[in-house]
Amino acid sequence: MNELTFTDVHAFQILDSRGYPTLRVRLTSSNGTWETASAPSGASTGAHEAVELRDSGSLYSGRGVETAVAGINTSIRELLLSRTWPSQRSVDTALCELDGTADKSRLGANAVVAVSMASARAFATFSGQELHAWIGNSLGQPERLPVPHFNVLNGGAHAANPLAFQEFMIAPTGAPTLPEAIRWGSEIYHALGLTLRQKGLSTGLGDEGGYAPEISRPEEALELITAAITDAGYVTGPSGVTIALDPAANYFYHEGSYDLNGRSYNPSQLTKYYEGLISDYPIRSLEDPLAEDDPYGWPELTALLGSRVQVVGDDLFVTNPDRVRKGIQEAAANSVLIKPNQIGTVTETLDTLTIAEQGGFTAMVSHRSGETEDTFVADLAVGSGCGQLKSGAPARGERVAKYNRLLEIADAFPALPYGLVEKFSKDRGTS
Q1: Whole-model pTM?
Q2: Predicted confidence (pLDDT) per residue in 208-231, tens digit
Q3: What are the respective helix, strand and coil percentages of the chain, to the nearest 5?
């Protein structure tokens, strides 16, 4: 029989990397195996994301998740134990129907995504496959080890400094193997820390493990990073190390204008500003360069810059299949960020990846700022074959867990290809 039967479902409250509550699910199958999954949480969230269920009251400043836990241990448990399940899609469809809302707000996206991820692990185990292989087979895509995008310098909602841009990432695009890429990232990260100390700047960390020095201008951050790349013995550019930016523009967008570096920009002016940065620095990826509610700016920016860099929609798309489909039609970007908890189920996440692939978009799998040691997104990046994963700095256990999982997969499956899957032109030279 090819259907899976669950014999127990149990959830409990745990803490994420920021010290706030989240939840973990343990799902037991009739064959005696059990799988767990933990829900991440974002600080920089899009308005159209699936909604976490948080408790009100004084405990944990109202951020507890006991209500979501109780929902798993009662109604979701009753659902999953009530029948046999032929597929992941059947489980996820039933979870969505039980929730009954468009944004998972009744049961909570945090509850639904943890159950869905645990279920995916259970189906992979039931089929005798590694999770990444099960995902690859589900998508019908060849697997690929991704280029890690290390968030080495934090600003925006992830840090207490005045830097408006949220993430400055390094991508070892020229590394020959995944283990080499991770070594490069680690060496550059520590070189950056040394540079900051030598300049008398703070080496305190932001939410995702990147340094959060007291600087305010993106150019300052980019100069520090390019210097660290050189100091670590590497070159900048596609054959060496490139830079990926996540400005997270929602957070400096106010009533139609962008407040940055002490001045206001309209969308066209901000696009020109990005164009200057791309010309001056080895930038290959630009995530959320405009606000989610700037519908005319996105196509204009993509038309101007999309042949030179990857234009990634995160808050714009929130891993939602319908929003990605619309973005493809409008040429609003050329890439989508993939975060399972933004949409709530594994099936919807895989559907979004399929739509992106069919529409000519690239995809980048991502962690969240509030993370756990769960490594689901590492397997998702490999199984989807998207070629890129961002999981924070090469530091802090909840971030390193994902990179270590990639190293484990690379060691166990040495024949897997490694590298980017780029669909925009690569006309940038080495600087």
Answers
A1: 0.95
A2: 999 999 999 999 999 999 999 999
A3: 40, 20, 40
